[in-house]
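Customer ticket, subject: "Can you confirm the structure for histidine kinase?"

Message body: Hello, I'm evaluating your service for our small team and ran a test protein. I'd like someone to confirm that this is what the system normally returns, since I don't have a reference to compare against.
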Amino acid sequence: MRKIITLIIFLSVYSGFAQTEEIDSLSIQLAYENQDSLKVDTSLKLIKSLYELNDYDKAIKYIILSEKLSTDLNYHKGIAEVAYYKALIYAQKNDYINAVSGYEKSKALFRQLNDALGVAKVNNSIGLLEIKRGNYAKGLQYSLSAIEELEKRNFTYELKLSYSNLAKAYYNINAFDKAIEYYLKALEIQEQLNDTVGINESNNYLAELYSIKKEHRKAIEYYEKVLTSVGTDNDSIRGSVFPKLGGEYLKFNDYEQATKYLIQGYNINVRSKDKSSLLTVLNNLGDLNLQQRRLILAEKQLLEAGAIAKDLNNKNELLRHYKLMKALDSTKRRFDRAFIWQREYFKLKNELSKNSINVDLSSSETTKLELDPNFDKEVLIPNDTKTDTTNSITVTENQQKFDRLKLIFYALLAALAIVSTFLIMIYLKRNSSIKYTQELEEKNIKIQLQNEAFQEQTKHLENVNNVKDKLFSIVSHDLKDSLSSINGFIDLLKDGSLSREEFDNLIPELSENANSASLLLFNLLNWSKSQMHSLEPKPSLFDVQEVFEDKVKLIEQRMENKGITLVDRSLRDFAYADRSMFEIVIQNLLANALKFSNSGDTITISNHISNGSCIISIADTGVGISRQNIEKLFKSNTFTTMGTNNEKGTGLGLSICKELIELNNGKIWVESTQNVGSTFYVQLPKSKPSA
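Agent reply: Thanks for trying us out. I re-ran your input and got the following:
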């Protein structure tokens, strides 16, 4: 390591010494130069050497002298070159206005001199300046217009800068294919010039671009080139590359390689305290451990990543953190927390999408630029093709040209008149055809609307008939069974056929039948009203905790008889809806939870306070619902199964719940696993929704 540092210092000193010798030589040559125009040329070489050494103050002194001498001599080439170098120095000092003014002045002079290379150099410099300032579309216009001339002259140094900056500009406007194209061109020249820093930068950007395009094998290839180039001594670059390389191997489920690079990246970044790279490695480690079901370790790493992402305001990594946390909590069956992560994920994703609109517009502008390669170009006539023939054009030749042009003009005018006449005739005929076609289409639309109205009326009559059939079916079977059982019990009491002990034993069954008949009539009434479209919500602001308390009292005795425990985690929170409709929904959901729970099971009621809405959940540890049956819930067709104590139902309860909640601008859904339990969620607004 010490030898390498010594070698670098030696090369730097030697390079500086060599450049100093060149400046001294040019200074001596300038002192002994006799011819004024040659003095300007020598001075320009001296200015260029000082500029490359970043000695701008000394370069400005020679620029002032050269500018005065060039102006006195009316030496346009010298004035143009001096203006160009002065603009370059202004650009280095971040004086944008003077830099642009100088560039435009030098470009105008180069155009007068028909110096295509000079114009190309100036356009390239303007392009680099605009790209550096973030004006990517404008910078691309200038740089693209200069590329052709620079390539023709094989100016490798200028091309290297131009290719790299074009690639960065395309990268920043999300034109990834073009960015890859120019990074590959830049890399080729950087390898020719043995520019190690440039090579590493291009390889790193290429790896990132291929990763964005999901070409992960190529991304791995270029990341490994960076690592090979820097060796084992540059912890800064290795700390940045290891987390990304580990993430690429993770895409192929190559856990061994992913673990290897991610652990190395973690150790380096903890040691160097590089939070940005540490954030990437923690997200990737969390993903790796989540995939391998090491959930405790994954959660610890992801929580640490989330804290760093918020601290650095790194929204892309924060978005990934939300997605991974949602997957983690879903895996751990913490669905309420998973729901919160999912909400945060979509909220941030929408924010990032809005911010990318301007970038997309820039990208579309860039596409147009590539179709216009003649941007900012003028036709330049090389000096060696100029002759005195221009001066020999006679007045007669000019007159002949004028006459020919005049004749062509009148011919074109006549042709235009004829074509216009034909176009007007075609237009009139076309309008007539269009009008006739529109009339036919209108008639067809009327017939189609009439047919649709007949179909709608037929469908409505069928629905009414179905409602009637369902009502008779339910009343004749389920309600009849419950009432018959109660009547039989009353008859036994009247006859005195029951002993006291038999009476006590039959009371729970009688209570169950009465409750069943009551709930059945309750649901039938509300369902029939909803089918006849007579339900109108009357929303108001009310406390959901109060509703829970009222409805739990109704089923306390039945829960005690069945041996089921109630856990009340409800909080004081408000919803904006029709309270009576909400009470119907809660009563149905509690009855369902009780119906499908066994002795020893638990029913948990809770609500989750949120800014925009009120979310209620009723969970049970009962028999659960199969995936096939979940799809049948909330449908207009009746669907029911027997309870754990053979309790019956109409299959209308959840259908009614869905209609009532949607009438109040809310949502209802279920999450369930068979033999584990079910959780029903209800979401309602907290205030009157805007129109």
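A couple of notes from the result: Residues 535-685 form a domain with the Heat Shock Protein 90 fold (CATH 3.30.565.10). The chain has 24 helices and seven strands. Feel free to reply with more questions.
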